[in-house]
Write a structure and sequence with these properties.
Elements (H helix, E strand, L loop, with lengths): L23 H24 L4 H26 L1
């Protein structure tokens, strides 16, 4: 069978796309930022015990908001 104009000839292969969220530099930077924030919060609570209650309350609210935003982004990407 001779080739016709309607047949698709493959071009050069597309470069592979990295999987989302697996960039090692991004993960390392995110890990360092989280570690520094947690370390600073721990130091603040140890150095100033009267702030432990308010800092814990803010951390609880921030954790809940972060989880809600993460779930919303995860659902939106589907």
């Amino acid at each position: 069978m001779p080739a016709t104009d309607t047949e698709h000839t493959p071009g050069p292969p597309a470069p592979p796309r990295p999987a989302s969220g697996t960039d090692p530099v991004l993960l390392l930077t995110l890990g360092l930022v989280i570690a520094l924030i947690l370390g600073a919060t721990f130091y603040l609570c140890v150095a100033h015990p009267r702030l432990a209650g308010p800092v814990s309350a803010v951390g609880g609210v921030a954790g809940g908001l972060t989880a809600a935003i993460g779930i919303a982004i995860g659902i939106r990407r589907r």
